[in-house]
Amino acid sequence: MKILIVEDSRHDSEVIKHVLNQEGYSDIDIVATGEEAIQIVKEQDFDILLVDTKLPGIDGFDVCSELKAIEGFNGQVIIMTGLVETVDAAHARAVGADDYCAKTTDCSHLIDAIKNLSDK
What we know:
Layout: E1 2-6, H1 10-22, E2 27-31, H2 34-43, E3 48-52, H3 60-68, E4 76-81, H4 89-94, E5 99-102, H5 108-118
Parallel strand pairs: 1-2, 1-3, 3-4, 4-5
Helix pairs in contact: 2-3
């Protein structure tokens, strides 16, 4: 399974990558902006994209919407947030997100979301 992390915080992206590696996921790329994500998805296929809501430039919701509009895109997008309150579920669904979750220090919600999408 090929995963793309779209996260502008180097610390957060490295923590997420480390936890995913511990869970057995090893084919992981990281980009810091939505624009980079859109460009790399046009060049490579990813199974799962983990997209933070707060990004420089276009936000995670707009990134998801643009990714879903790319012809031939068949990856699954999980919108993630570091905010204490939960992601706006209706907004996430409206832009085509396959799932959404809060970023926690142990990444348990994120791992659960990935496993749920993998089982589909």
